[in-house]
Predict the 3D structure of the following.
Amino acid sequence: MTAFDLVLVLAAALLPAHHAVSAPNTIDPEFVAKVIHVDDGDTVVALKSDMTRVKVRLANIDAPEVSHGSCRPGQPWSAQATRALKQLVHGRTVLFSCSTLDRYGRSVCDLHMGEDRRSPTANREITRMGLAWANRSNPAYLRDSEVAVAESQAQDSRLGLWSAPGAIAPWEWRKTAWKQPGCETQGSRP
């Protein structure tokens, strides 16, 4: 464990659990930070060396939705995607290469599984495992063609969510399963 890791571990332990995640107004295009929490298969919280917490949405992918209550049911494979991302990056100090902020103020980043750009990305790996889609909900969301290749390989090998027919992309799931009668006043995403 490096001195940087030790400082991050101690800081994370001392900060209250309810401590707010910073919502930056500008994008930090590249930073090294420790992944201290995995929300789901495509969202993490990282702690920078200045003790700033940053919520990060993995670029280029969309993982199965976790449950957000009765009006927003989860998808099959969401628990496996979350668990796999935890195994890949939780507790590790990694490089984030970011392109933008999403509408929720999260940094949208490639999450390298090491501290330099040569490290493979968790974005590609989670897709290669068959636990996320290449994000085609908007043409601007899929900038890494290797993610589409990883998805195709997972489909061909029938891995993860591709092991059975009928997988519904998360962007379609949110449109249909999260628009139930009586749930109109709730937002479309947490």
User: Anything to note?
Assistant: The two ends are 34 Å apart (CA to CA). Residues 38 and 106 are 14 Å apart (CA to CA).
